[in-house]
Design goal:
Elements: H1 2-11, H2 15-44, H3 50-65, H4 77-87, H5 89-110, E1 115-124, E2 129-131, E3 140-143, E4 146-157, H6 158-228, H7 235-259, H8 262-269, H9 296-306, H10 308-329, E5 334-344, E6 353-362, H11 366-437, H12 442-476, H13 492-500
Antiparallel strand pairs: 1-4, 2-3, 4-5, 5-6
Helix pairs in contact: 1-2, 4-6, 4-13, 5-6, 6-7, 6-8, 6-10, 6-12, 7-12, 9-11, 10-11, 11-12
């Protein structure tokens, strides 16, 4: 009944009263809608439903299954690294976080612009604006009962501009910190990809050969058990044979268990779904070459110049130093300059349009008392960052020396396993020849095949460990990808070709890979 009632009152009033009644009606309606709106917002708040979570989970699963460039043929180490640096989800997330940080920098730059405000207001009053002076009893009207006033005002606060400029520089430093974090994730993913690739190669080799030998193992064990029933044969011989075969099989199964999941890890690192086909190229023939170039002191200096942690601490120091400038700047008086255009529909005004200008001076003197303590806090923060940098430099130097020592140790272990595998392969050839002419029992051939497989797999694992040590060394001195490689706008094949052609020499220690003889039956 409120609406019709107000409308009935409006019909019996003057045009001025109608305008006032309409304004009151509009205001009352807006307040009613606002109250319902606020109440509705409270009622609409609810927790995530199971259907919402299920729908989002399906979307995530579909997104994780998509491969923009499915692998063509077999992947070598360069193909795997190329896919990782382009399609790894963690790297992509850090790249988007860096883009977000720079978007915030661009948004912060807008705060340095002057303020331009357009203001328009409608006003009205229930009684006419009548006034009189003490020297006259005659009333006069100074303004209309209703009217429309507009203003366009340009203002600029010099102090706010200076502070906004410093905040913008700090935001740029924070964006650079996020970029360094993206570098860290990329280096870590490359290191893990190289290790996972070689472990997957060893896993495939072991799985294929072991499955091929299992029927022969079972047959020879059954034959040995039958032979142990023959009283003419020394049981010690058959028992020793069974023990040796089972022990070799146990060691191979342990290696198989330790390598299980390598392919799943490689798929995740290279941006492939877990159901995507994955075929790896066998390593090339050769022997490891020296990957340590230069003196340890040079590597330490390279690490201090390139490691992301050092650069992030440098950015923290610069952010804090700029905070000192902002703190001191806030002590200065604020000066605001303003200029505008104004208009008013009031018919009693002699000039309905006019120009305004002004300046405002403000100074918060209490900030002077806060300054010493704020400076002390910032100075203490900078001392913390400097000490952290010293401690970090010592840690980085230790990591470089450890990485170099691990390469040397892994290289020696690799050479030993290669030599042993080569001798074991020669032994297998001799046993095969002897078994062919009947001078050696078939059981001895199966035993040597298992021993040779174990030696080959250990050599491949030693190669994977050496590759992992070299990747850790490259990460310790923070060797980046060449700047000439454009990642996002290049297909995987082009990235892999750039790495394969030798562009990776600036970030990847070089050595040639080992090709084991396929000593399967």
């Amino acid at each position: 009944m409120t609406g019709p009632f107000i409308g009935a009152l409006a019909l019996s009033k003057s045009p001025k009263d109608k305008v006032m009644a309409r304004a009151s009606n509009t205001t009352l309606t807006a307040l009613i809608l606002l109250s319902f709106g606020l109440g509705g917002c409270e009622l609409a708040s609810k927790r995530l439903s199971d259907s919402d979570v299920a729908s989002f989970a399906v979307t995530l699963n579909q997104a994780a299954q998509v491969a923009d460039e499915p692998p063509e043929g077999r992947l070598d180490i360069h193909d795997a690294v190329a896919r990782a640096i382009k399609y790894n989800a963690s790297i992509r997330a850090e790249e988007l976080a860096t883009a977000l940080a720079w978007a915030k920098v661009n948004a912060a730059n807008v705060s340095m612009l002057p303020s331009l405000v357009a203001d328009s207001r409608y006003y009205g009053r229930s009684e006419p604006a009548l006034s009189r002076s003490t020297t006259s009893s005659v009333y006069s009207t100074s303004s209309a009962a209703t009217g429309l006033a507009s203003e366009l005002k340009l203002s600029w606060n010099i102090l706010d501009f200076g502070i906004a400029y410093i905040r913008s520089e700090q935001a740029a430093d924070k964006a650079d910190k996020q970029f360094e974090e993206s570098r860290r994730i990329t280096t870590k993913v490359i290191e893990e990809t190289r290790s996972a690739y070689w472990r997957s190669v060893a896993f495939n080799h072991l799985t294929t050969r072991l499955e091929r030998l299992r029927p022969d193992i079972k047959r020879m064990l059954d034959t040995s058990k039958q032979a142990s029933l023959d009283e003419a044969i020394d049981p010690l011989i058959t028992i020793n044979y069974q023990r040796d075969i089972l022990n070799l099989q146990r060691e191979l199964n342990q290696l198989h268990t330790s390598l299980a999941g390598s392919e799943a890890r490689l798929r995740q690192l290279t941006g492939l779904s877990q159901t995507a086909p994955l075929r790896l190229k066998p390593p090339r023939t050769g022997s490891p070459a020296s990957s340590l170039i230069g003196l340890p002191e040079d590597d330490v200096m390279s690490a201090l110049n390139n490691r992301y942690e050092i650069r992030q601490l440098m950015l923290d120091l610069r952010i804090t130093d700029r905070e000192v400038n902002a703190t001191i700047l806030q002590l200065l008086p604020g000066i605001s300059l303003a200029r505008g255009l104004a208009s008013d529909s009031n018919s009693f005004l002699l000039h309905a349009n006019w120009t305004t200008w002004g300046a405002q001076f403000a100074w918060n003197l209490i900030n002077l008392a806060h300054l010493p303590r704020q400076i002390d806090v910032l100075d203490a923060q900078m001392q913390v960052y400097r000490q952290q940098a010293v401690a970090l430099a010592a840690t980085i130097a230790m990591q470089v020396y450890v990485a170099r020592a691990q390469i040397e140790a892994q290289r020696k272990a690799f050479r030993d396993t290669v030599v042993f595998a080569a001798i074991q392969n020669k032994m297998l050839k001799q046993v095969k020849a002897a078994a062919a002419v009947g001078t050696v029992a078939p059981q001895a051939l199966v035993k040597e095949q298992l021993a040779t497989l174990l030696a080959d797999v250990r050599a491949r694992l030693a190669q994977a460990d050496l590759e992992g040590a070299e990747a850790a060394y490259a990460a310790s001195i923070s060797r980046d990808l060449p700047a000439s490689i454009e990642i996002q706008n290049s297909p995987v094949a082009a990235l892999a070709e750039a790495l394969r052609a030798g562009a990776q020499t600036s970030w990847r220690p070089q050595h040639r890979m080992l090709q084991m003889t396929d000593s399967g039956g």
